[in-house]
Amino acid sequence: MEFSINFNNIIGIVAGIITTSALVPQALKIYRTKSARDVSLTMFIFMAVGITLWFVYGVLIKEIPVILANSVSLILIFSIIFMKIRYG
Amino acid sequence: MEFSINFNNIIGIVAGIITTSALVPQALKIYRTKSARDVSLTMFIFMAVGITLWFVYGVLIKEIPVILANSVSLILIFSIIFMKIRYG
After folding, report:
1. Which chain A residues contact residue B35 at CB under 8 A?
2. pLDDT tens-digit profile of A4-20?
3. Which segments cross the bilayer (chains A, B) (predicted)?
4. Which of A11, A14, A46 sits opposite B22 (nearest CB)?
5. Where would I find the H helices in chain A?
6. Are B88 and B66 in contact (CB under 8 A)?
7. What is the CATH number of domain B7-87?
8. A61-71 per-position pLDDT tens digit
9. How far apart are CA B71 and CA B69, in angstroms?
10. Would you say the C-alpha torsion B76, A42, A13, A60 has a positive or negative sign?
């Protein structure tokens, strides 16, 4: 498997950094308030399944941004699911 | 610009359908409860910016699943942002 970095990759990497970073304030908000009542568990379970598939897709099309962004997103999504179940 | 459908596309399309669908229960939950207190506005603003870039990335690498999934996701994200601002 061979990878190369080009302009498209840079756009994808920036996109990945932003969408992955987006999960951080949600995770922090739940952690700080110990409340996740308005957060949809269904949303984050679907996200976990879908992001796992995006990761597989990234490996198939050999696109580093897709692989990296989705790996980190998965970790954040599981932390949100864990807190949602814990704090409700 | 030329597009073709192959196995990778199918994985990407399924991934896109799932991650995009994930936003629907969150949007519905806010609509039904008229409450979005625990939902992070910062998360969805970052998502809107990031998903716009993923859309651009999809156009650059000519991957239909990336283009389609992110178009629909953007619409759902803007509806969530609108309701978050309205219902708080």
Report:
1. 37-38
2. 678 888 898 899 899 99
3. 6-28, 40-60, 66-85
4. A46
5. 7-33, 41-60, 64-87
6. no
7. 1.20.1280.290
8. 888 888 999 99
9. 6
10. negative
